[in-house]
Design brief:
The chain is α+β, with helices and mostly antiparallel strands. 41% of the residues lie in helices and 18% in strands.
């Protein structure tokens, strides 16, 4: 495992995207977002994605000249077409629109379609939380990207269909960001790269047999991810597919869709227009303290609420550097070499 500083890795990522044809501002937004995912410990949504993104740019599947288009508009909602632009760019613009509408109307929803990979979903509700708002977001993969078997089935029928929630808190926002499947595909990919087993109960092979071998998921023939919590995760994944796909106009998971993108729905609520903000903060604080006061299970030192593990990982990685697997670093170097970008020295 190699180690590199976050600042150096952000410069490297941005330089690759700019050399590949992205506008300078967009290259910085995307590069920073990927490295921020690494900083938080979510390497599955970090710089390992760069070769995929550059490949999509080369295939014109990412439109580097995209502009967000509002195709339906009202005081408390909008539908936007992302013109197949970078997800991290379009997702932030759509979230800014939802926040602005919520400031005016108290609550607002924005649905979007034709968006490339959004990256780490929790980033967007966190934006609202930093503005003193709560937010919930659903995404699907535009009808393609089917990797999850339905409860009771063994064939791929749904995408990971994550759900994210952001809640403001004085000590830093609470951010819930969960796939409705048992494990993110990117984590399975990292395990395959590292030669590590997949946790039990996460994947099945093509015959529906439980497996811990990442190769059984990818095939050929391919297996599938399982929904988390059995029928509960399946139900949430189905609902997310509908809310993100059907409301945005992108459509839900279905046969015959090859292009993988994201469609989404984000709903933002301005707390101050619903109740006294101080009282809200007190309720959140008291709940967290109540939860943390529980007697600890054997081997557990502390109860953490969502976002606290990521915050601690970020502090450590900002201090010590970001670990990068040798295979991932080699893949980045190959892309960089193609575009004449110098590979930075590692620590």
């Amino acid at each position: 495992m190699l180690t590199i500083s976050a600042s150096k890795l952000k410069d490297y990522a941005s330089a690759i995207f700019a050399a590949g044809g992205a506008a300078e501002d967009d290259a910085g937004i995307v590069g920073d977002a990927l490295v921020d995912a690494n900083l938080a410990g979510h390497d599955s949504h970090g710089v390992m994605r760069i070769p995929n993104y550059v490949g999509w740019m080369e295939q014109k599947l990412i439109n580097v000249e995209a502009e967000l288009k509002v195709v339906a508009d009202a005081e408390a909602f909008a539908v936007v077409d992302c013109d197949w632009g970078f997800g991290q760019v379009m997702g932030r613009e759509a979230t800014d629109l939802a926040i602005a509408k919520a400031f005016n109307s108290g609550a607002a929803s924005v649905a979007g379609r034709n968006c490339c990979h959004l990256g780490r979903l929790g980033d967007y509700p966190a934006m609202a939380a930093h503005e003193g708002m709560v937010a919930v977001m659903f995404i699907n993969t535009h009808g393609g990207g089917k990797i999850v078997a339905p409860f009771g089935g063994i064939e791929r029928r749904l995408s990971a269909n994550p759900i994210a929630i952001g809640i403001p808190r004085a000590q830093g926002p609470i951010v819930v960001d969960v796939s409705t499947c048992s494990i993110a595909e990117g984590k399975v990919r990292n395990m395959r790269t590292a030669g590590q087993p997949v946790p039990a109960g996460c994947i099945i092979d093509a015959e529906g047999n439980p497996s811990t071998d990442a190769n059984d998921f990818y095939g050929p023939p391919p297996g599938a991810l399982l929904p988390f919590g059995g029928h509960k995760g399946f139900a949430l994944g189905l609902a997310a597919d509908i809310l993100a796909g059907a409301l945005s106009g992108a459509g839900c998971s279905r046969p015959g869709v090859d292009r993988i993108g994201n469609s989404f729905l984000i709903t933002v609520i301005d707390i101050a227009q619903m109740r006294d903000r101080g009282q809200f903060d007190e309720d959140v604080h008291n709940l967290v303290e109540h939860v943390k006061s529980s007697k600890l299970a054997p081997g557990v030192d502390e109860i953490l609420v969502p976002r606290e593990p990521e915050s601690r990982t970020q502090e450590r990685r900002e201090r010590d550097g970001i670990p990068i697997h040798e295979a991932t670093w080699a893949a980045l170097a190959e892309v960089a070499g193609k575009y004449g970008v110098a590979v930075p020295a590692i620590e």
